[in-house]
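Propose amino acids for all 499 sites.
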């Protein structure tokens, strides 16, 4: 608006309001170029500068610089040296200018270093005030000054101006590293010093975050509240797994300064260290853990928050930590936790177990079920000593496992044997049985009784069904016994076609 006001200031004009609907598109004549175009437009920049200077309380012009240069004993000599030539050795007063003597010039009574005007001492405070008028800060002041002016130790003067300005100091940002870093001592064992803090609320829940300083093991517990009693309950559950720590570091939140919490740490002989108020860096480990946890929850695509939390915790605990280079689970539990990434690596033990499973599946006992032996069974057991027969008779004393037992020999020696090293002693056959065998004319050895003679010895003869007779031979009259069926129907004998 100022630009338009300045531009229109050269004209006499009348403001007319035209409502929007009456503003039509530009026609041809309004855009048609005229022949007389030599119109001097007033320079705008100078007028803007004028407006700026009008508000300023102090000004400094080149005329002021020239006048001050005339009066200043040092700069007047510099200007004279530029015009008449420099002495071979520098005069002490002119030393700062002597090194720049090849770049110094004069213009309208002022001394210039390149394009920068050298400000005489009388004008330095005024120029500094001009630069600092809007309190732009030390960096911007220096950058602005370096484009226009110079004097010996100009940067120092500008810095002093900012450092002594009350307004600038009152809003100054505290430097981050003004104190030497005092890191916590690295604990000598796991779960010795733990850092705790609360994160949230996120998704309507608070999260108790706990980090072990040694292993960097992270625990995050979702909780509905963060009172001292709730905190103690969660800590009790965690300590039931990992044991009591020596030191707990926390901030000054009421969750950790409440009487319940204090009583808990005192009763369990835990030293409680709190950070200085508004100095979260003391509990930096927990603060960083909170940041990491929040970032992970934000990055997750969505879904059940507990699922996301526990997946994050699992990955965090099995991943090597940036500080220790070792996964927290290995430092805390001294073992590698099985994860889905273990499937990628071929394992020798898995291979052996699979082979054993296949072998067990393919193994078939040579004759039926494998024999079992119980207490009191008379057996023969394999004799591995050089003296005596290969198999020695004995009695099973006691079973020592599913396929092993202790056996006592007839001489009283007790040995431990696998079932495959035993076989059962057969009892002597009664004399009648031998008689039957002799009558049947069978040459059979081993156990033999009447039931077996019909079924297992000789040709297979089924006594319940008529025997098959070759068709050519005459049918011998068989004593067919007609048995009534359960339904009452009488079964008729089969009449075969006799050709
Ligand atoms: Zn200031």
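Proposal:
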């Amino acid at each position: 608006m100022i630009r338009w006001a300045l531009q229109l200031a050269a004209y006499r004009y009348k403001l007319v309001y035209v409502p929007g609907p009456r503003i039509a598109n530009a026609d041809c004549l309004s855009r048609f170029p005229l022949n007389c175009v030599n119109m001097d437009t007033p320079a705008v920049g100078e007028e803007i500068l004028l407006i700026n200077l009008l508000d300023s309380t102090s000004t400094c012009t080149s005329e002021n610089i020239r006048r001050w240069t005339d009066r200043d004993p040092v700069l007047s000599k510099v200007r004279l040296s530029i015009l008449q030539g420099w002495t071979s050795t520098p005069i002490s007063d002119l030393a700062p200018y002597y090194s720049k003597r090849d770049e110094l010039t004069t213009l309208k009574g002022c001394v210039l270093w390149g394009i920068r005007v050298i400000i005489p001492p009388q004008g330095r405070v005024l120029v500094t005030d001009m630069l600092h008028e809007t309190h732009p800060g030390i960096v911007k002041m220096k950058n602005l000054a370096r484009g226009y002016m110079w004097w010996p130790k100009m940067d120092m003067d500008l810095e002093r101006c900012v450092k002594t300005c009350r307004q600038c100091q009152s809003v100054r940002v505290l430097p981050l590293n003004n104190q030497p870093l005092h890191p916590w001592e690295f604990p000598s064992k796991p779960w010795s010093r733990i850092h705790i803090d609360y994160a949230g609320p996120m998704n309507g829940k608070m999260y108790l975050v706990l980090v072990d300083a040694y292993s960097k093991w992270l625990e995050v517990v979702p909780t509905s509240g963060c009172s001292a009693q709730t905190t103690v309950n969660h800590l009790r559950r965690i300590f039931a797994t990992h044991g009591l720590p020596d030191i707990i570091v926390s901030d000054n939140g009421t969750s950790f300064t409440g009487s319940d919490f204090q009583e808990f740490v005192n009763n369990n002989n835990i030293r409680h260290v709190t950070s200085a108020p508004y100095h979260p860096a003391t509990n930096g480990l927990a603060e960083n853990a909170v940041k990491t946890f929040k970032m992970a929850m934000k990055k997750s695509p969505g879904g059940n928050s507990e699922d996301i939390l526990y997946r994050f915790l699992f990955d965090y605990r099995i991943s090597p930590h940036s500080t220790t280079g070792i996964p927290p689970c290995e430092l805390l539990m001294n073992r590698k936790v099985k994860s889905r990434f273990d499937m990628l690596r071929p394992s020798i033990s898995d291979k052996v177990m699979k082979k054993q499973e296949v072998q067990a599946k393919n193994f078939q006992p040579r004759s039926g079920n494998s024999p079992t032996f119980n207490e009191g069974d008379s057996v023969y057991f394999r004799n591995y000593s050089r003296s005596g027969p290969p198999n020695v008779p004995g009695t099973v004393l006691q079973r020592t496992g599913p396929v092993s037992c202790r056996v006592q020999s007839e001489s009283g020696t007790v040995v431990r044997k696998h079932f495959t090293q035993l076989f059962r002693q057969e009892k002597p056959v009664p004399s009648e049985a031998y008689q039957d065998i002799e009558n049947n004319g069978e040459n059979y050895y081993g156990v033999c009784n009447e039931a077996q003679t019909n079924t297992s010895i000789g040709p297979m003869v089924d006594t319940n069904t008529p025997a098959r007779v070759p068709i050519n031979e005459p049918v011998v009259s068989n004593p067919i016994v007609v048995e009534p069926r359960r339904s009452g129907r009488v079964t008729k004998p089969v009449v075969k076609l006799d050709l």
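The first helix runs from residue 2 to 8. The longest strand covers residues 391-401.
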